[in-house]
Amino acid sequence: MSRVLIAGAGMAALRTAEALRACGYSDEIVVVGDEKYPPYNRPPLSKEALAGEPTLEQLAFRQKASTEDVVWRLGETVVSADLAGRTVALASGEVLAWDALVAATGVRARILPIPGGDSVRRHVVRTLDDTLELRPLLTPGARVVILGAGFIGCEVAATAVRLGCEVTCVALDPLPMLRPLGPDVAAELLRRHEERGITFRLGVSVSAMAENGTTVELQLSDGSTVTADVIVEAVGSVCAVSWLDGNGLDLRDGVLVDSALRPLVNGSPVDGVAVVGDLARFPNPLFGTGEWRVEHWSLPSDTGRRAGAVLGARLVGEGYDEVVALPFEPIPSFWSDQFDVRLKSYGMPGLADPDGVRLLEGDLADECVIGYHRGSELMGVVGIGMVRLVNSYRDKVGLGKVESP
Amino acid sequence: MALKVVVDMNVCQDHGQCVFAAPQVFQLDDDGRLVVLIEEPDESLRAAVEDAADVCPVQAISIKG
Prior knowledge:
Number of helices of chain B: 2
Strand order of the largest sheet of chain A: 3-2-1-7-21
CATH topology of the largest domain in chain A: FAD/NAD(P)-binding domain
Mean pLDDT of chain A: 96
CATH class of the largest domain in chain A: Alpha Beta
Largest sheet of chain B: 2 strands, antiparallel
Shape of chain A: globular
Mean pLDDT of chain B: 94
Helix content of chain B: 10-25%
Oligomer: heterodimer
Shape of chain B: globular
Strand order of the largest sheet of chain B: 1-4
Structural class of chain B: alpha+beta
Strand content of chain B: 15-25%
CATH architecture of chain B: 2-Layer Sandwich
Number of strands of chain A: 28
CATH architecture of the largest domain in chain A: 3-Layer(bba) Sandwich
Order of helices and strands of chain B: EHEEHE
Low-confidence stretches of chain A: none
Helix content of chain A: 10-25%
Structural class of chain A: alpha/beta
CATH class of chain B: Alpha Beta
Strand content of chain A: 25-35%
Largest sheet of chain A: 5 strands, parallel
Largest interface: A-B, 21 and 18 residues
CATH superfamily of the largest domain in chain A: FAD/NAD(P)-binding domain
Low-confidence stretches of chain B: none
Radius of gyration of chain A: 22 Å
């Protein structure tokens, strides 16, 4: 009886387990995850679930018959791994042996180091428990200060405004969602969000905070202050990789892997180990030479299926070399709902030249599709509305695809 | 039991990811609204329909049978 051990119990873990079963692996699969919940869908945590009554029933992924015998060890944490000895250790001290290991521990919300800032009024939105904790605080008139103006920050801001809160968004960047979308699109979204009642304090950071009764005073880097009843930090993520320390892996940004999602030690892949989801920094020839870590919703499924197929072939003993040699070129996609704005993207818009952002369809002030080019190549598209049209560009992004006008 | 596709239209947000997975079964109409073309697809489409349910961002698709 062999054992696949999956560290992390999110969507990527589930898709990996399903893919292992789909390719005929029938021995043990053990999933160890630090949250007490089975895999659930995270995007609604900053949107519908935060606006309504968040429940696990609504968010949990459906369980397929093929994975009914997976052993879920929830509420437990993997604290170290020995890749040579093929074991992991849990926080409880228990040591589990494995024949194949999947790193699916993902990311945590980043917490800013702010002087005086250990207030109980600070929140993040990453897990169901985070959203359950935040939801009752978003009452009409509550002063909500969002730190960060990326997608999650803007989604939480839009949800809080809809719930009647007074929302201020504080960010170091001069425009919301600037890095992924570029200045023109970001400026247009700033205009729309200000119109809907979000106050933006851009180009500033928080230098200190102080509790004052039931509120918190935030001191900003430009000398001004903001008062908050609730603070939500949405300033990116930190990879949960420390449990892999000591194995010679490249852990500088997630885990460096090859196209079969095997981690590399001195340039050589470690067979029997795979990295999936937010952690995998993998090559994608569709977008050029290099390796990228992508935190979009589509990647846990793409990488989970790939890892399951590779590990499954090895464990079952059928066609391993052939499976490893298959190309792996997923097209990242994400969406974001902010008020009535549906943003949808395919590809890697962030790889565009600074002057490579061009309107492909529609009108920036209304609905549109924007192309992100490097030279004449379309690296990514972003749609504001126009879902059917932006979807039609999905197969046109990437090197050597259709050249855009 | 025959394969049956059920989309919860209260949950569906017309992302259209299912259309990539199973274009024989799902389509976005001219207004961008999701239309289920075949509610009881042939068994040969099972894998495609399963894939469509998996890639639905709001998990609005369920499969019976």
